Amino acid sequence: EPSTVSFDVRPGGEVHAFSHSLGDYTCTFTYSAQGGTNEQWQMNVGISEDNLLFSCSVWRPQGKSYLFFTQFKAEVKGAKIEHAMAYSQAAEGGQGDIPLKQEEFEITETTVSQREGKFRFQLSKLMIVAKTPRDEL
């Protein structure tokens, strides 16, 4: 069963991390942000029916964050990223997700994170689909 949890994204410039696990897999969102007040965000983790894919999404349900993100990283443990995307604005009220420009972030086997000096501080959603080790059996 996919699982969604709410958590606060807190400004103040300190680095914070929030993790959520499902079975053997964990998703961790690490960030620092400035401005405004706490925002309620959500993290959803799920495993495909065939156990081959682990997904993790982190987003602000209101669609847009008013915080100024100085850094962000989403990391999966137990699986290897096949597809990931970061968005400056999440879909809301008939508007679609607005992706970050390709140069603003980078994707490795296990992380999606901001690219130093290129990221424009706007983040509202991250989405990861990762292959589980069961794929190699």
Would you mind describing this structure in some detail?
The protein is mainly β and 137 residues long. It has one domain. The protein contains no helices and eleven strands. It has strands at residues 3-9, 16-22, 25-34, 39-47, 53-59, 68-77, 80-89, 98-99, 105-107, 111-114, 125-131. The strands form two sheets. The protein has a six-stranded antiparallel β-sheet, with no helix packed on it. This is MYDGF factor. InterPro entries: MYDGF. One of its GO terms (cellular component) is extracellular space.
Mean of all residue-level pLDDT scores:
95
What is the domain total for the residues?
Answer: 1
Name the poorly predicted regions.
none
Number of strands: 11
Quick overview:
The protein is built from no helices and 11 strands.
Which descriptors apply to this entry?
137 residues; 11 strands; MYDGF; 5-stranded antiparallel β-sheet; mainly beta
Topology record:
Layout: E1 3-9, E2 16-22, E3 25-34, E4 39-47, E5 53-59, E6 68-77, E7 80-89, E8 98-99, E9 105-107, E10 111-114, E11 125-131
